[in-house]
Amino acid sequence: MKAVLFHGSGKPLEITEVPTPQPGAGEILVKVAACGVCHTDLHYIDHDVPTFKDPPLILGHEPSGIVAGTGSGVKNFKDGDRVLLPAVLTCGYCPNCRIGKENICDNMVMFGNHIDGAYAEYVIAPAKDAIHMPDDVPLEEGSIIADAISTPFHAVVNRGQVRAGDNVVVFGCGGVGINTVQIAAAVGASVIAVDIVPEKLEMAKKLGAQGTVNAKDVERIDKTIKKMTGGGADVTFEAIGNPNTIQDAFACIRKGGRTVVIGYTHKNVELPASKIMFFEQEIIGSLGCRPVDYPRIVEMARTGKIKLKELVTGKFPLEKIDDAFDLLRTNDPHALRSIVIP
To answer: What domains, with CATH codes, occur in the chain?
Structure first.
């Protein structure tokens, strides 16, 4: 099969022929329909972030496709079935999995990190982790559910506990943030989007934001947000991974409010412990998504509550994968999510 091999940070990706994997017991072989292009991959390629499996490795952790083979013992899938593969596979037996926190599984395995991913014509996956995709969900665009939509869903519904009528503020309208906006709006929140790029704020409006703030245009974002929300947001989300915006997001919540950090940063963040205690404010982390939530997300996409096609702004064949990553590097405000189609 044709695949894109990653040989290490700073080294060029190689498009080459490799043996087509064969499914073992409990596994399915998936012919890849599409795989999302993510900043996580770019961290491996450009920024010396190590993968758990030593290169060479096939990257790509946001795949959808069609079952092209099954191993022994597989009963819930057959050849021709349309499937979505979660970005992270869980063990099911560690303490976190047993209490329903599979997204922080002690033995998690990630496509394109621990095992070969989906920048290839075929990928192997455990049948227990695959999700059936209805015929009326577009298979190519639906690939982004695996990460770009499921991660914000978990942040909004499970970690942020957003309810209808809540005032929600989302900091950062990139690939993850823009979906945090549309999911919070879909569950009934009044959403304000914060960014410094006008085009991203316009897209946030199209996906359900009732208000927007360009952070460059205000002297103090916390005063602006508290005025707009009548005292502060119920829940804020930071989807950038910047210590300054994490502080801003926390400064914008009301008494008893909650800040959810989705963006990653290796830097320390200083926050006022007195407010956390005295105002019963919360700051919470959010990672990935639980397997149990994927069918709910797929159903929201099927019924149009979550938009897919509007978010996929670039489609590239395997041979043009470098162009997809170059587009990601430019931070083009019109480029929300690209997918690779083998």
So the answer is: 2-147+289-341 (3.90.180.10), 150-285 (3.40.50.720)
